Amino acid sequence: MANNAPASPPPPPSDESESGSSDFEVVDDLTASREAAAWAKTELLAGREPDSIVAELIETGWQSEEVQQIVDEVMRLTRADRGVPDYTPALRQALAYYRKSNSGWMLAMPSLAAMRRLLFSLASVRSLKRKQ
Fewer CB near the terminus (10 Å): N or C of the chain? Predict the structure, then answer.
């Protein structure tokens, strides 16, 4: 597998623009961000700490907010590759149990509805324990 990400962080996008050329100028600032994201992904998957990646990009000249956004997005996208557990499917299932328990004809009978909600809560806890 070819690794086309650079060994050092890419430089930030330049703010230089030709004055007086036109009223509307198209500036490509996404290429540098994509290169930085590719570099950060490679470094993160190699086991490097996110704080050191942020510090190195800031030392290169990137803006702090932009660097934080890039690293946060890369961390979110590489959760599965890094072995970080993703609880989103389990939370969706728990929300589905909650919605199902609070609907239908059982709402007319409060004690039965409360018992049904309890059973659905126990089922969602059991499913969360199985996910761990």
Answer: N
Write down the H helix ranges in 49-109: 50-60, 64-77, 79-82, 88-101
pTM above 0.70, yes or no: no
DSSP letter assigned to residue 8: S
pLDDT per residue, tens digit, the chain (132 aa), is 445 545 778 778 776 555 555 677 887 778 889 999 999 999 999 989 999 999 999 999 999 999 999 999 999 999 888 888 777 888 888 888 778 766 766 566 777 778 888 888 888 888 877 766
Among 27, 29, 32, which Cα is nearest to 60's?
A: 32
- Number of domains, the chain: 2
DSSP state of 20: T
Is residue 22 a part of any domain in this protein? no
Backbone angles phi, psi at 112, to 5 degrees: -70, -35
Is residue 76 domain-shared with residue 106, that is, in the same domain?
Answer: no
60 domain-assigned: yes
Q: What are phi and psi of 49, to 5 degrees?
A: -75, 140
